[in-house]
Structures are given as structure tokens and as C-alpha cells.
Amino acid sequence: SSLNLSIDEVVSDFIPSIVSLDKLQASLATIATSAGDVTLGIGGPELLVPASIVFGTLYALSFPPEDYIIGNEPYLRGQYDPNLARSYYFKRPLLVLRRALQLFRLSNGFLTNILFDKYILRDSEKNIDKRAVELLELIQNIGPTAIKVGQALSVRSDLIPAAYAGALSELQDNVPPFSSVQAQEVLKSELGEKRYGMLKKIDLDKPVASASIGQVYRGFADVENAEGKKEEVEIAVKVQRPNALAEIALDLFIVREFAPYYQKLTGSATDLQGLANEWGRGFIAELTYIGEAASTKKFNEQMKKKGLNAVTAPTVVDALSTNRILTTEWVRGNRLDRSEEDDVARLCGVALNAYLVMLLETGTLHCDPHPGNLLRTEDGKLCILDFGMTLDTPSSLQFSLLEFIAHLTAENFEDVPYDLVNLGFLKEDKVDLMVKTGSLEPLYYFLRQANQGGGGTKVRERIFEEYREKYPGADDEELRNYMRVEIKEQGEKMAEKASAVTGITMKVEDLQKTNSDAFTIPEWFLYTSRAFLTLEGISLQADSDFSIVRSCFPYVAKRLVGDDSPRAQKALRDLIYGKDDNLNAEKLSEIADGFTQYTTTTKVISSGGGANDQSSGNNFGSEATLTLARDSADILLAPEGNLVQNLLVEESATAANANIKDTLREILIKNPERIRSSLPLGIGNFLPKGPVKEVERFLNKSEREVQVQTLLAKFTLPEAPSPAELGSMIRTMGGNSSTASTVEGMNAEEIAVLWKAVRENVPVYGPKVMNLGGKFASTVLSQVSNNIEHVIETSKNAESEAGLPEQLVRNSARGISAAARTGSEALKSNVEEQL
Asked: Which residues neighbour 715 within 8 Å (Cβ) at sequence distance 6 or greater?
């Protein structure tokens, strides 16, 4: 003002010299140099006036008018294109300069404080909680892009300090709203007068929720029902922030262009420009509400198709939805984390099942699972909100994750590193190094602890209790030191062992420095882990011993049992038999129990009542039991066969073969021996014994036959049990208590319903039972033949010395083997013909 120059005059003279971003960069470097000269007194007074003009101009430019960005949209809504954006903004350097200077002005206070902590105090941790609050306030002031980036960073404690991530998590629910005038303008421009007139009783001054790119209003509207008649429906209307596309596109461009310089400055191993592009694709996709409407409807259809009727999403009102307006029917209920109902933990299980189905079956993952988006409806269902951001997952991930969970559950850690490669965590060329140096051992240890449940607090308590027993009298800090030392020593020992065998001589410390080259964090894991962390936190409020690993198992059991693809069947076999290839009765029982629990959990609400609705209890009991019976029958009696059916047939045939051997041993060896012993005066000692030794060769049971025979004996029911006896049996065998209670609570009416269903399904399942019986008989005969041939083959050396009785036994055995083989093949052919 002392020079009597207006800002407009200065800008008109100054801006023409900035014709491209390249020149802009050079100009800013000159300004920085000039400012340094003035500060140091090196330059003369002649630099003071130009420097003041430049500084004043830049400062003025950092306060752009409200409408400076209107209409500056480099690409279509929902179609992120960084190359198109670069071309667009290179032609509009003043637009970029205004926003960049505005961002710098708003953030310079925070940046100054960070530099002060680091270089003056030399302690970045001292004020970190205070800085986290400052960062939260800064992001809320900058705009929607910063809010979206903040939300994305709230789950990336690998990129920012944990205190920052914790503070940014508040952005999920607390975003400043835009004005009601702007909301009304968007509604009228998008809907037009006619459709705008359908809206009723909407208070635009009081949004019920405000998010990063839109806010929600509650009201009513006259819409057509399924019969074509008008009816008043309570609705939720989400209105997109004005100029959201122009603002987000410009900010994304600035972030993307600045990312390589920041990466070079900080030495970060993360591809920050690639990360910015991933954010860009997600953020811009959210700006098309038509896409969100389609994703919402698709989710409801998929959950219904999968039989997961206890979870839903809002019903979309298409007549009142556009690219910037999304209208759905209002969902009556409470946030899941604030609900006082006693079925919260069960609904968290339902949510886990829903996310696992999305991740492992439908291939479309909901990417915004914060507590505000999870509701418990008044009728006891789980409702998931906001499908604006979704992620498509590759089909290969589905089987890789199933294999990983199966190996973890069976504690088959030898295959876990290769699972981590398939899941995208570990680079394939680093597997041997990670295994041989023991770097994955701490992960295995924590996974074992996490499987026991209780969340982070209980895991911590168990670990400390373990070390207190090893080091009595030590305080917590000393115990932490012992833990660090033991982990380090364990790694060094494994490294020394690997070095002796393979020549590896590097130290564990060197390996830790290169871990960033070996490990990556795939995008699907970020969103899935955020969902699971949210659900675990809610569940731990209701059950302090809640285990998210165990809660995922019912779905895994259902998926593995019902999936006949080769990779799924291999994962199931690994789980049941383990790395030693021995049938694990406990795992088999857990899988059966998990299959039951999944079916009953997803059917709890399908009858239409809430979890505590006693009037629907009888219907639920019979419905859940019928569903479970049908699902089980469809798997066990599947004509094309599957691993579960094959396991049942193979192991039952093995047990039957063992029982046949026991019976023949009783008839051919033990009974004659008893008769000989019972004869008076020791006459039996003079009678010929026959070829007992040779016969016994064919009747000796293998270790596997003994194991399976013992196992199946536990499942044998001498007679049909009552509901109370069956429920007690389920508990005795370690089954699910809720399933046992359901069975025990069955009354005569429910039993009659079930019996009626059995009669009605006999024509459907009768032939399948006959086919399964044929498979079983064929397998028994095949095993008989194989056992005989094995004995003959392994005792060839003794055959040359065998007498006539032994030769007769062997020839008879060969005849039996041939007959059994023929019978097995005939039954097998008959079954195939029936199919």
C-alpha cells in the first residue's frame, strides 16, 4: 500500500512471467534466494521492494476467492486420469499456484512446530499427542481431499506415527458440514423441480451426518411402491459437497506431483506417487453416487444369494438418486458400538461373515467399515452403510487366504511363508532368507497368542504372565528387555544354523534393515484389517475373551466344506490331517461345529424376529435345523462327490475294514484258541493249530485303522437319542453350546415339522443315499483287496519257505482279493451309471 499499488496491478504484471509450471518452479527458487539475501543483508536495498512485492503477491494469492475453482474439472466424475489432469493443470498454472499457496499458508504453522520439535528440542516424541490434535484440526480446515487422505492414513501406522493415526480416526464421524443454501442448490440442480417436489419435511439446516464428500439429511418422500402406487416413505438423502470434483482433482494433482520430492527428502521406501494414484482412483470413484447406488444394491443381492439374511444395506430409491444425490430408505436402528442389546457380539460375527463373503466369494469389498457405518436395526439385523468406496479382489486371493487360515489353524507354519507370498505380503525371492534367519518366528508366536482371544490386552497379559513365570520378581520394563533379548537371540541362533548349512553370514540386524525390501502391505489387507479391528473392538466390549480368529472359523469351515475346488479341498485336507497326515479328531469336530454355527448364526434373523424375540424361537429352531440338515445332506450326498464325502467314505471304509479284521480274528484265531483251551486234560495242546501266523498277517490292523476305528466309535449312536441326550452329547464332544441349546429346546411340534421335512425329502435324497452306499461298499471292497495285496507283496520272502497250509491261506487270500476288486469295480460302475 505504501507503493500505492493494488494487488490486481501487481498480479497483472507478475503473473505473465509465469507461463508454465517449469518457470513457476524457477521463479519460486529465485524468490527463496532473494528472501535469503534480504534476511542476511547480502543484497542491497534495491532487492527489498521487489521481494516485498513478490511476497505480498504470493500471500495475497494464498487467499483465493470462493469461486476460483468452480468448473475446473479435468476429467469426468468417477473417471480418475492422472495424465489428463497433468495436461489440464499445466495449462492453468495460476489455479495450481493459488491452491498450493493456500495449502502452504494453512499448514505452515503445523510444519513449523514439527521442525521445532525435531531440530530445536531434538525430541519428536515429546509433543506428539499435541501435534496429532493440530494435524486433525489442520486437515479439517483444508478440505475434502485432506479429509479423505486423513481417513486413508488413519489405518497406515506404517506411514505415520501411531498417535497421528489415532487422531485421524476421528475424521470418520466428525466432519464440518457445508451450508444449507449450498445443499438446496445441489438438490434443485440435480433433481429438477418435479423430483425436488417429491421431497417432504427435510430440514436442510440440520444434517444428521456430515462426511468428507457429502452430508445426509432425514425426511420423507412420495415414491412408487412395487405395485406402482404412491406412498410416503421415510428417507435418507446424501448430498455431495459443491465443487467436490474440482477440489479433489486439484489437490490430488498437487499431492501426486509433490510425492516424489517428499519421498526423496524422507527416504521413504513406499511408492508415494503410486499410493496417491490408488487414493485418487478411490476418491474419484466415490464422487459418482450412481456407482454407490449400484454397489449397495449389488451387496443386498449377493448377501441374499449367499443366504446371509442377517445382514443388509439400505434400500436405494432410484427415482431420487443421481450422480450427486443418493437417496435410500431410512434405516431404523442404533450404531452397533453403542447398542445395549445382548446380541451385539453375535452381530459382530455376522459382520465378520459378511466381510469374509465379500473378500472370499463375491470379490467386491466394502472399504469404509468404521463404527458409524455399522448399525443394529430394530428387527435385529446388521445394516452396513456407505458403499461409496469398494475394492475388487482377485479370485486367486480367495484360495490363498483360505489356505493361509487352514495352515494357521493346523499350526502348519512350514507353509505359512509361501502363503504370505501368495497373499502379496512377502516377495518370493526373499522367502528362504526370512525362514532361515528366523524373522517370521515372532509373527508365529503372536498368531498363536491371538488365536486364544481377548484382543490386544489379553494377549499382552498372557505374554507377560509367561515371562513372569520364567523371570520371577522382574518388573514390566525388565520383562520387556528379556523379551527383546530372547527374540534377538532366537533369531541369531537360527541365522547361525542357516549360515552353517547355506553359507549365510549376515546378522539379524542387517536383515531387519532390508525387511522393507521383502515385505509389502497389499491394499485389500488395509481395508479388511480396519473392518476386523473395528468389529473386534465392539465385540470386546461385550466379551472380554472374544477371539476374532476363532470367530472367523465358522465361515472358513462352511466355505471349505462346501467348496469342491481342488485348492479348497487341499486346504481342508491340510486342516483335518495336518502336516503329519494323521486324522485330527479335534479339528474334524471343530469344522463340523463351525459349519453348524455359521448356518445357525446366519439364520437367526431370517425368520423376521430379533435375536431376543421369543415368539419366533420355535420357528427359528426348526428353520435353522432344517437348513443345517439340508446343507449337510447336499454336501454329504453330492452325486459328483467332494472332499468331505470322500473323507467320510474313505475313513468309514477304513474303520469298517478294521472291524472286519477284528471279527475274522475273533472267528479264525481267538475262538479256536478258546475251544482248545477249554478241552479237558490238555487235549487241545495235541490238536493242530493251523496256519495262525499266516492268517494273522492279513488280520493285523495298521496304525491308521486303529486311529480311525477309535475316532468313529465316538460318533456312533447306539440308538436314536432324545433332544436332551443329543444336546448333552454335542457339549461332551466340545460342540457349540448355542447349537446344543437349540437342539435341547426342540419340542414335539418342531420334531414333527422336522419329521415331515424328512418324509418330503426322501424322494430327493433317497437315490443319493443309495449312491453313497454304493461308493462306501466299493471303497470297503477296494481296501480289502489293497490290504491283501500289500501283505502278500511285503511277505514275498517268507512265501518260499511256507508249507502247504500257508500256501492255501495265500491262495485263498488272492482269490478273496480278486473277488473284492471285481465287486468294487462293479459297484463303482453302477454308481457312475446312476449319475
From this structure: none
Q: Cell numbers for 671, please give them.
A: 475262538
Residue 772 is which amino acid? Answer: L
Helices (H), 316-471: 344-357, 395-409, 416-422, 431-436, 441-450, 455-470
Closest CA to 551 of 566, 529, 536, 568: 536
Asked if residue 519 lies in contact with residue 325, where contact means CB atoms within 8 angstroms, the answer is: no
Helix and strand numbers (H, E) in the chain are: 35, 11
Cell of 11: 498480479
3-class secondary structure, 223: strand
Contact 61, 97 (CB under 8 A): yes
CA pair distance 136, 171, nearest whole angstrom = 8
Residue 490 scores a pLDDT above 60: no
User: Quick one: average pLDDT of 118-145?
Assistant: 89
CA distance 156 to 152: 7
Nearest Cα neighbor of 211 from 326, 129, 134 is 326
Tell me the Cα Rg of the chain: 36
Q: What is d(CA 20, CA 93) in angstroms, rounded to the nearest whole number?
A: 6
**Three-state secondary-structure class, residue 309:** coil
Quickly count: other Cβ atoms within 10 Å of residue 537's Cβ: 16
H or E stretch at 38: helix 21-40
Q: What single string gives the DSSP state of each residue in 330-351?
A: PPPEEEGGG--STTHHHHHHHH
CA dist 65 and 69 (Å) reads 9
Q: With a cut of 80, say whether residue 411 has pLDDT above it.
A: no
Nearest to 641 by CA among 552, 556, 569: 569
Question: What pLDDT, in 10s, does the model give residues 609-647?
Answer: 444 444 444 444 455 555 655 666 665 666 666 666 677
Q: What pLDDT score does 469 carry? A: 78
The C-alpha atoms of residue 417 and residue 440 are separated, in whole angstroms, by: 8
Q: Give 536 or 218, the one with higher predicted confidence.
A: 218
* Residue partners of 670: CB distance under 8 A and separation at least 6: none
How far does Cα 560 stand from its chain's mean position? 16
Q: Classify the C-alpha dihedral 540-542-545-550 as positive or negative.
A: negative
Q: How far is the C-alpha of 799 from the C-alpha of 815, rounded, in Å? A: 16
Distance from the Cα of residue 239 to its chain's centroid: 31
For residue range 413-449, list pLDDT tens digits in order.
777 788 878 877 777 777 777 676 666 666 666 566 5
Q: What pLDDT is recorded for position 16?
A: 43
Residue at 197: amino acid letter: G
Long-range CB contacts for residues 442-445, cutoff 8 Å, separation at least 24: 442/487, 444/413, 444/416
Q: What type of residue sits at position 668?
A: L
Residue 560 in contact with residue 591, Cβ under 8 Å? yes
| pTM value > 0.85 | no
Please report the pLDDT score of residue 730 as a whole number: 53
CB 269 within 8 A of CB 516: yes
Q: What values do phi and psi take at 747, rounded to 5?
A: -100, 180
- Kindly indicate the confidence band of residue 293, based on its pLDDT and cuts at 50, 70 and 90: very high
DSSP of 698-752: HHPPPHHHHHHHHHHHHT--SSPPPHHHHHHHHHHTT--HHHHHHHHT--HHHHH
How far apart are the C-alpha atoms of 79 and 286, rounded to whole Å?
A: 10
Q: Tell me: the pLDDT tens digits for 705-715?
A: 777 777 666 55
CB 72 within 8 A of CB 92: yes
For 709-740, letters b (16+ CB in 10 Å) and e give bebbeeeeeeeeeebeeebebbeeeebbeebb
Helix, strand, coil tally for the chain in percent (to 5) = 70, 5, 25
Determine the average pLDDT of the residues in 688-706: 77
